[in-house]
Specification:
With about 190 residues, this protein is α+β, with helices and mostly antiparallel strands. The chain is built from four helices and seven strands. The longest helix has 23 residues.
């Protein structure tokens, strides 16, 4: 599972689907036809400190790693063109899913990234993790995705795959909420 230096200036290079970058905006019309869609939004808290901590945790892979997800990459931060191999599961049941970061955002009110599937991934599609600071100061994580099964066992899992994806997205929100709160506690 090597993602050591497979970085490209073309973030769409080698992707297994059309429509790269469609998760950048919450507009389902940009998703390719025939793909299932996911949108899960979780409130993390409020205030600029929560937003900054949550955005940093998403962009530096910390949220994923705190969930026990292996993020094999040479890059310390999500950047367009960076390859990452996501490891889900444990032991011999661990799934290795190669992806490429398609887009990133790191602004005053929005931070996150979207990555797309590369050959060898059990799904085709794109997933995004976006932290947003609303006008009222509320901070949200939104997980957006479109996907369809690529390998036989993902197709055989049928309706369990979208259920797993929804549970995973909710877990992302719960873990990021905890990380954001922990970053606000005074250090001893």
């Amino acid at each position: 599972m090597d993602a050591s230096d497979d970085r490209t200036d073309d973030p769409a290079a080698g992707l297994t689907y059309a429509g790269a970058g469609a998760t950048r905006e919450d507009d389902p019309s940009g998703c390719p036809p025939g793909f299932g869609r996911l949108r899960v939004r979780t409130r993390l808290g409020s205030g600029r400190e929560v937003f900054l901590a949550a955005g940093r945790a998403v962009l530096t892979w910390r949220m994923h790693r705190a969930m026990g997800v292996e993020m094999a990459t040479a890059s310390p931060r999500a950047e367009p063109g960076v390859r990452v191999v996501v490891g889900l599961g444990a032991g011999r049941l661990r799934i290795h899913a190669p992806c490429r970061v398609v887009w990133t955002a790191d602004g005053e009110r929005r931070a996150g990234f979207g990555y797309g599937t590369l050959p060898g991934h059990p799904e085709n599609g794109e997933e995004a993790f976006v932290v947003e600071l609303d006008d009222d100061g509320s901070v949200w994580l939104e997980v957006r995705a479109f996907s369809r099964p690529e390998v036989w066992w993902a197709r055989a899992a049928g309706p369990l795959v979208p259920l797993f994806q929804r549970l995973y997205a909710r877990r992302c929100g719960a873990v990021l909420r905890r990380l954001s709160r922990a970053s606000r506690r005074p250090r001893a």
